[in-house]
Amino acid sequence: MSRKPLIAANWKMYKTPAEARSCAEALLKSLQDHTRDEIAICPPFVSLSIVLDTLSGSNLAVGAQNMHFADEGAYTGEISPPMLTSIGVTYVILGHSERRQYFNETDELVNQKLHAAFRHKLSPILCVGEKLEEREHNLTEEVLMRQIELALRNVSPNDASSLVIAYEPIWAIGTGKTATPEMAAEAHLLIRSQVARRLDRKSADNLRILYGGSVRPDNAPSLLNQPEIDGALVGGASLNPESFIKLVRY
Ligand code: PEP
After folding, report:
1. Active-site residue 168, yes or no?
2. Residue 174's pLDDT is what?
3. CA distance linking residue 132 with residue 96, whole number of Å
4. CA distances from 198 to 136, 143, 146, 216, 230 (A)
5. What's the pLDDT score for residue 54?
6. For residue 170, what pLDDT is reported?
7. Residue 250's pLDDT is what?
8. 12 is in an annotated binding site
9. Ligand 1 pocket, 220 CB below 6 A?
């Protein structure tokens, strides 16, 4: 089963539009001939257009970090799926642990957003992962199964062809602590088997499962060489173009 790896940069709430443009220019210069992996850059909303313009016509895709599930409406401060697709955005990160933790996003809300992404032909990068205390109490499997079951409610195998899942253990995000390649691979196997149960075997075999949590140029090779790991969602190390380029080119 060959799944083209995806390396996605999550810039979180960093970089002004001018900084985003200069970072995108540096990435374009060094990565425009990189074909082994797909690459997606996810800047803050206000920098989507400038990054799309900079990367236009290249092999580097652009994603949003969140969106509302409705097409339009009285939802002050929100951004809708058609707003993203109308400017050329192709990926959207959904259910990131920072959104779940600081903005009270529930599995039910993530499910609504996932359906909206499929309706609008956006490829969702669905984030799942356990907290430290859940891992310490041997609840990792239960948490992952529940998050996937609820996120995929009423999703059909047909819808799911563009789905990407990112396994992001919360204790590893922005902490410098990384899951060992074996721990990550074990979680990815659990996720794939749950997707096979919930959708079907073919969808599970085609699904790209990324690892996220303190991925850096030094630990990327051992993680990304695991056959079960189909790429990475990179936060901190994607903010500096040199470090992201080094990580991609491991
Ligand atoms: C993330 O934001 O999804 C992430 C994995 O962050 P970091 O790489 O900084 O841990």
Report:
1. yes
2. 87
3. 16
4. 26, 15, 11, 32, 20
5. 98
6. 95
7. 87
8. yes
9. no
| Shortest-distance Cα residue to atom 8 of ligand 1 | 235
Matching residue, tokens 């959708």: 199
Span from the CA of 211 to the centroid of ligand 1 (angstroms)? 10
Q: Which of 112, 124, 113 is nearest to 166 (CA)?
A: 124
Which CATH number describes the domain made up of 6-248? 3.20.20.70
Mean pLDDT of residues grouped by 10 in the chain (250 residues)? 92 98 98 96 98 97 98 98 98 98 97 98 98 95 97 95 96 90 96 96 97 96 96 98 96
Query: Please, what's the largest Cα pairwise distance for the chain?
Result: 48
Residue 221 beta carbon below 6 angstroms from any ligand 1 atom: no
- Ligand 1 touching residue 63 (CB < 6 A): no
User: In sequence order, which residues have a C-beta less than 8 Å from that of residue 79 and are 6 or more positions away?
Assistant: 45, 64, 66, 67, 68
Round to whole Å and give the CA distance between 137 and 122.
Answer: 36
The DSSP code for 228 is T
Task: State ipTM.
Answer: 0.98
